[in-house]
Write a structure and sequence with these properties.
The protein has about 625 residues and is of the alpha/beta class. It contains 16 helices and 35 strands. It folds into four domains: about 250 residues, Ribonuclease Z/Hydroxyacylglutathione hydrolase-like (Metallo-beta-lactamase, Chain A, 4-Layer Sandwich), CATH 3.60.15.10; about 150 residues, 3-Layer(aba) Sandwich (Rossmann fold), CATH 3.40.50.360; about 150 residues, Pnp Oxidase, Chain A (Roll); about 45 residues, Rubrerythrin, domain 2. The protein has a seven-stranded mixed sheet. Strands 17, 18, 19, 20, 21, 22 and 23 form a seven-stranded mixed sheet that branches. A hairpin with a 4-residue loop joins strand 26 and strand 27. It is globular and about 90 Å long. The termini are far apart. Bound molecules: MU-OXO-diiron (FEO). MU-OXO-diiron (FEO) binds next to helix 2.
Length: about 625
């Protein structure tokens, strides 16, 4: 068998496998696109394996492992999760690499005994007992240049689960979290399109069905990883995520907090002879006529309950329409409802349609079942159909559509006081974000600006605006030259924090490499640094005019040099706000005080002084809003 490892980053490899024959994952969830079992190998002074794989792909896993080790030792196996789709090959691994140390939580160590009978002195005997290093919250493991920090993540998806953060490559090894159904068909890394297409749908279906019941535990794990500077998320199933991570993290926060993604209506129906289906189609059209978008309609006899569960996580409102069957709820609807109940999905709004030719009871029974779910609200009266919907019955459907449409949250109409200046309006300006670099004698300095504009074409001139209080502005006034590097959309938050949230008067911003694997500082003809990391172009300017505008200096400069550095798209302020700037952890919602809308800094306290200035981003009190 030929090895098929994939390079993730220097010295780190995906060494898992794909199973496209598995028709039903865990014996429950159909996997039309197959499933991948991800294992990773990090080569270092000590070689570290991160999880094994399902036995179905054990052959290629061992092939990959042996190919990459090339006879060298395997020193550690970090086991994040003991479910056999990831640990099944551990027993054989221990036989092949007897000097290996297994790194895992105490609960995992107990499960190793349960699954493999490997505890000292038992079963196969003490000589087969694995070397185990038990780790707890916050413990670390060094393998040379890499350091792994462990965080317990109980019930994401089993109680023994942990995740690890490796700080050299900035990789979060996330166990089942951020995993997805779907085999890896060539491209291992999630692309922009994957955030909206089948991978997102399969990631939602995977999370909601497999981990969805444990929302509070997932929120706790998300709070733990919120402060981390993550470049890549390597889950145990599906794609590796390395772009737009906040998009995925935000989805997880929604799913874990049972917050709908879409304020819309999901209609799930059962219909033996098409009459209930007809009523549902009338309702769907009536809802659309009332302006409801993204309505989805599913026949529960044709659509499996794992899809229904996933869609209930997505939608705010659910209409259940079912025939009466055996004096109860039609069996497929009963199955879907009980799957929703088993996952303890919270805080949705439901309405009901029942059908029965002689004694309709499905509405009453569905209502009883759904009323017992946590936080669910029931809308309106159950609409009863006797065998088929007639014109005389249409008003009851129209009334239900009115009730649902009126209940759907609408985007609040912008309230605008005449002559008021609304700060978020400025965030809609399509400006980008730039690293402005200067040099004061032998000292390099730089800051983040959001205003750099081409002024004239012939000759080439640009304008920039710089906060006067900034050290960078002081240096431009002295030297009259600067470089503007255009930052790209893959720029991590730490670059903005490094250059934007500290002053060059007290910190040497170029004292060390910002990214040890980045290209490092390069200098343009004017002697200034440009784009040490993450710039897609730079422009050198020589000041020919300036004007003091109170808080800012506006500079007009002639361009002395300009070059494209990469084809990565430029970051816009909107993209930064949506996808790069960290979202406050859920715990922040419990805090009382004021949050800066620009950088997220929280000032705790009832009052915010009118002359308050954000210590992080220097915006004034008008950039703050009250929490809670
Ligand atoms: Fe992929 Fe919980 O196992």
């Amino acid at each position: 068998m030929a090895h098929n490892e994939r390079l993730i980053t220097d010295g780190v490899y995906w060494i898992g496998g794909n199973d496209r024959r598995l028709s039903v994952f865990e014996g429950v969830y159909p996997s039309e696109r197959g499933v991948s079992y991800n294992s990773y190998l990090a080569l270092d002074e000590k070689n570290v394996l991160l999880d094994t794989v399902d036995k179905a792909v054990g052959g290629v896993f061992f092939e990959n492992l042996e190919f990459l080790l090339k006879g060298k030792s395997l020193d550690y196996a970090i086991i994040h999760h003991m479910e056999p789709d990831h640990s099944a090959c551990l027993a054989e691994l221990l036989l092949r690499y007897p000097a290996l140390t297994v790194v895992c939580t105490e609960k995992s160590a107990a499960m190793i005994g349960q699954f493999f009978n490997f505890q000292a002195g038992a079963g196969g005997g003490a000589e087969r007992a694995p070397r185990i290093r038990i780790v707890k919250e916050g413990d670390t493991l060094s393998s040379g240049r890499r350091t792994y920090t462990f965080a317990e993540a109980p019930m994401v998806h089993w109680p023994e689960v942990m995740v690890s953060y490796e700080s050299y490559d900035r990789i979060l090894y996330s166990a089942d979290a951020f995993g997805s159904f779907g085999a890896i068909d060539g491209n291992l890394f999630a692309d922009e399109a994957d955030y909206a297409g089948v991978w997102l749908d399969d990631a939602r279906r995977y999370y909601t069905n497999i981990v969805g019941k444990y929302g509070p535990q997932v929120l706790a794990a998300l709070d733990k990883i919120a402060p981390l500077d993550i470049a890549m998320i390597c889950p145990l199933h599906g794609l590796v995520w390395r772009k737009n991570l906040n998009f995925f993290l935000e989805k997880y926060r929604r799913w874990a907090s049972y917050t709908p993604e879409d304020n819309t209506v999901l209609i799930a129906y059962s219909s033996v002879y098409g009459n209930t289906e007809n009523a549902v189609n009338v309702l769907a059209a009536a809802l659309a006529d009332r302006g409801v978008k993204k309505i989805t309609v599913y026949d529960v006899s044709a659509t499996r309950s794992d899809v229904i569960v996933s869609e209930v996580f997505r939608c705010s409102h659910v209409v259940f329409a079912a025939t009466t069957y055996n004096a109860g709820i039609f069996i497929k609807m009963d199955e879907a409802l009980n799957d929703i109940k088993a996952h303890q999905i919270r805080d949705r709004t439901a309405a009901f349609i029942e059908n029965g030719s002689w004694a309709p009871v499905s509405g009453k029974l569905m209502r009883e079942l759904v009323s017992a779910l946590p936080g669910w609200k029931i809308l309106g009266d159950t609409v009863t159909i006797n065998s088929s919907l007639k014109e005389a019955g249409r008003p009851s459907i129209e009334k239900l559509a009115d009730t649902i449409a009126a209940d759907l949250p609408r985007a609040p109409a912008p309230v605008h006081e005449k002559n008021a200046v609304d700060i978020p309006a400025f965030f809609k300006l399509s400006y980008g974000l730039f690293l402005l670099t200067v040099r004061d004698g032998e000292k390099d300095n730089g800051c983040i600006i959001n205003t750099a504009v081409q002024l004239t074409d012939t000759p080439k001139r640009i304008t920039i605006s710089v906060i006067k209080a900034n050290y960078t502005d002081e240096i431009i006034r002295k030297t009259g030259i600067f470089n503007v590097s255009v930052l790209s959309a893959d720029t991590p938050f730490k670059v903005f924090r490094h250059f934007g949230f500290q002053s060059g008067r007290t910190a040497d911003k170029f004292a060390g490499p910002l990214d040890p694997k980045g290209p490092g500082p390069a200098r343009s003809a004017n002697g200034l640094i440009y784009a040490p990391v993450y710039g897609n172009a730079f422009i050198s300017g020589k000041v020919i005019d300036s004007k003091d505008w109170g808080t800012h200096t506006l500079y007009v400069a002639e361009v002395t040099e300009a070059a494209v550095l990469s084809n990565e798209p430029s970051v816009t302020y909107q993209y930064y706000a949506d996808h790069i700037k960290p979202k406050p952890p859920a715990s922040a919602a419990k805090k009382k005080g004021w949050v800066c809308k620009v950088c997220g800094y929280i000032h705790e306290g009832e009052e915010l002084p009118p002359d308050f200035v954000c210590p992080i981003c220097n915006h004034g009190a008008d950039a703050f809003e009250k929490l809670g």
